Amino acid sequence: MPKVLKTPLSEEVVRGLKLGETVYMEGVVYTGRDEVHLHALEYLEKGKKLPVEFKGCALFHCGPIMRKTGDKWQAVAAGPTTSSRMNSLEPLFIEKFRPGAIIGKGGMSQPTVDAMKTYGCVYLAITGGAAVLAAQGIKSVSGVEWFELGMPEAIWILNTGNFGPLTVAMDAHGNSLYAEVNAKVKENEKKARQRLGLA
Fold it and tell me: Of 22, 54, 57, 89, whose Cβ has the fewest other Cβ atoms within 10 Å?
């Protein structure tokens, strides 16, 4: 049976996750893309209080499509954003705010892998192109912060249950499925060139 992770995540739980493991999320998940990262770091620099607690959280790289009925929001679609957009900001964000997990697609840079190893965080890959399926794991929306940034850039506070499947694609020990795949691709390219006499 796949493991179910409940937020907030302790460092012990995070460091116990294995590369390639399939997990599901339960509890509060925050959305956060470029603007949330920038805004949060600016708040920290100015000594301003953040509207949510990122320590131990699951931060979803997602710009959801939301619908409001009366005074309640509902997630219509919640597809992952390509995480490499946040490469320049994520290592510092992890250092300063200590999230337990980043959810996204496509993987992230080596400096982010290094920050995850140092501070205890994992990258959980979710299937791209399955925005409606992802939204089914969102049971309700508790609220929204920084809505002035726009719907896709705000912090949406999502209550999840059976959210996934998610794959541990970068663990808290410096390992990355993406790095492993890249290494194999380079090795295969080298062998192919050797066979063709191009090496």
Answer: 22
